[in-house]
Amino acid sequence: MDGTRYTGPIREAQVFPHGLVAAGFAEDDRLAQVLDRYPAALIDINLYDYQDDGGHTLRTGARGALNGADLLKAIQQGRLWVNLRDVQDGWPELWAAAMDEFSAIQSALPGLKAVRNAGQLILSSPKSGAPYHFDNAGVVLFHMRGRKRVFVYPGDETHLPERSMEQVIALQTTEEIPYRPDFEADATVIDLEPGQALTWPLYAPHRVRNLDQFCVSLSMDFQTWGSRFRNGALFTNAVLRERGGRPRPTDRMARPELAARWAASLALKKAGVMKSRIHDLTRDFEPDAEGADGVRAL
Ligand SMILES: [Fe+2]
What we know:
Layout: E1 14-17, H1 28-37, E2 43-50, E3 56-61, H2 68-77, E4 80-84, H3 87-90, H4 92-107, E5 116-124, E6 129-133, E7 138-145, E8 148-152, H5 162-169, E9 188-192, E10 196-199, E11 206-210, E12 215-223, H6 225-242, H7 255-271, E13 285-287, E14 295-297
Antiparallel strand pairs: 1-10, 2-3, 2-4, 4-5, 5-12, 6-11, 7-10, 7-12, 8-9, 8-11, 13-14
Helix pairs in contact: 1-2, 5-6, 6-7
Fe (ii) ion binds next to loops.
């Protein structure tokens, strides 16, 4: 992939087999049990409304009072996108199995060395998806149920402007990065089946569309020292830019300069500059297996 921002060990989108489905983690009764006991504070419930022009609006819902089985039914029938965050804390059995799988994938990618892993379990309705965005981390998407189509784009200045990366990393916007329909010509498209894990170059923008089936995936993100330095440098650059500076792009910085900017970012964060401009989202709905789109308004 030409012109990608991070010429790290993952050079292109790659699929690996995994054993999480065979271990039974994606079955209805297992998922219902997990939903019953998962801490409500770690559950995000989103409803996507797609527009004709390819844009979307997002409504955020409350966990509500449904039991696990009914919540699962609402997701299976609606247009919901449910994230169970911090799987490493919320579902340790799944996490342990996933980390074993990650180790195998990591050894197949020479030079890859994760220093921190975290994950979210995504339960998503047949007609839902994730809009164009990037993650400031590496990602392995362990697909466990249903079928989904993943579009991966080059991580260059056209598809991923450095200014936008700064804004997202410094939490100054919830806006996604700019998307244009002609990016599609540059996409690598992968249809994921249960039992397949997908990874892609660090920071590469991507979007996801479910292929008319209820989907379950564990999205594991990881940092390397390279991504940590880069994220810190982007944060420092965001601060400099807000103060009227014109910092050089991080992809023209050598590792010592990135490391120095990462160190600066730790001090800046400690000093509390760049307050997050992302406020708590209001809760507009809660899941309802009988309601339209699997929800009812609050
Ligand atoms: Fe992502």
